[in-house]
Amino acid sequence: MKINKLYIAILLSGGIVLQGCKDNNFLDVPSKEYVEAGDSEEIYTPEQFVNGVYGMFTDWDYSFSYIGITDMLSDNADKGSSATDAGGDKLSLDELTYTSTTGSFLSMWTRWYKSIGRATQAIDYTEKFGLTDETYKNRLIAEARFLRALNYFYLVRGWGDIPIQERDLIKREPAAEVYAYIEADLQFAIDNLPAKSAYAAKDLGRATKGAAQGLLSKVYLYQSKWQQAADMAKTVITSGGYSLEPDYATIWRLAGENGPESLFEFQARGTSIAHGIQQYSQVQAPRGGAVNLGWGFNIPSQNLLDAFNAEKDNIRRDATIIFRGETLYDGRLIDNGVENPMYNEKAYSSANGGAADGDKNVRYLRLGEIYLILAEAANEVGNSSEALTALNTVRTRVKLPNVTTTDQAQLRQLIWKERRLELAFEHDRWFDLVRTKQAKTAMAANGKTFQDKMTLFPIPENQRIQTPEMPQNTGW
After folding, report:
1. How far apart are the C-alpha atoms of 220 and 230, rounded to whole Å?
2. How distant is the alpha carbon of residue 379 from its chain centre?
3. What's the pLDDT band for 40 if we cut at 50, 70, 90?
4. What per-residue string of b and e applies to 354-387 under the rule 16 or more CB within 10 Å gives b?
5. Which of 74, 165, 210, 474 has its Cα between 20 and 30 A from that of 39?
6. How confident is the prediction for the chain on average, in pLDDT?
7. Does pTM surpass 0.85?
8. Are 361 and 251 spatial neighbours (Cβ–Cβ below 8 Å)?
9. How does DSSP assign 371-438, residue by residue?
């Protein structure tokens, strides 16, 4: 099988991640086993190829570069760690002084395109393998197409017009065309994936129909396709397959892993601790003091704390932020000797502390966000009643009073605020600020200067060295 066409320029060369399936969990295997396509006579199953795409979420890039360009850029987070530790490029991200040579952009650009290439290869391999069970074959293809769509969604939100790898390695397609491609992948996934409840226990965490529907509602939201976003969000909510976790804090604990609210998570463990998302918890764990669990990066900003306090949102505040001197839910004391006053509790692992190979699933998409997608989209089409019902469902869980205004502009601002408080440190705040055109004002309120060029990330300079005909984004 020829695979070179699946890589974008020289940056995306590399082997195929292959992962075997075990009885307890389909990802309970090392995720860094690289097997070059031409180096082995072993026949791999289509399922192994698809599993390898899931494995791309467990790499180091998701522990450091990912949090840098999703959280540290925004008003929710500061760099953290020690004042003398720039964290490579993390200080420049935090201060909004980054450039086209900032390494985190290159890392995630490469990671997401590699993942797309592996998804496309898994699709091609599965189609040609000769499987006779059409339902099973289409499910595997649908899983890979869901994962491909997810990676394209990151890229198009960050860079706008981008190459569609399966068409042309160099040409930057209009963002609208990329979104259409994502929508087609997700529609195929919706048509061919089972419900979450239909999977065997060993397959818990695979892409599901609900995950594809939820992601499509989010894709519509980011394009301001309000009615379609509302309709797809309602489909998820009324499907009966999901429910809000009664206790907000439980979502990020072991008890909430793949729980009733979860649509899709980056899987990090099986029944016994496997190779987790490499150092995701360690990088963000409290630094220094007697506890000394990790590196202490990506800490909550004072601006975020003030937003929680202004709303009297104690439940979500205390589930999101670890405070210096706090005794956590599991009895661990975060003593007064830690370097920073606050840390990200949503990244905290009780069982593994600051171990490099942790057990922390990253919650990518959950029902709480789907309610807020419905609230925003319904408000934009003038259905304030439906918007308020969805918004207040989320607020009721955390014991906040109902919002009652039906003024569209006021309600819009309140829904945006709710997204911030509900979804803090779930890696969407920067994209939300850009999408809603709040970035300049929000970053100024956080003491930082947002420039118009920052609406899009810079194409990494190393990519442009390899492909100089690829145009740079304006201003970079």
Report:
1. 9
2. 25
3. low
4. bbbbbbbbbbbbbbbbbbbbbbbbbbbeebbebb
5. 165
6. 90
7. yes
8. no
9. HHHHHHHHHHTT-HHHHHHHHHHHHHHTT-PPP----HHHHHHHHHHHHHHHHTTSS-HHHHHHHTT-
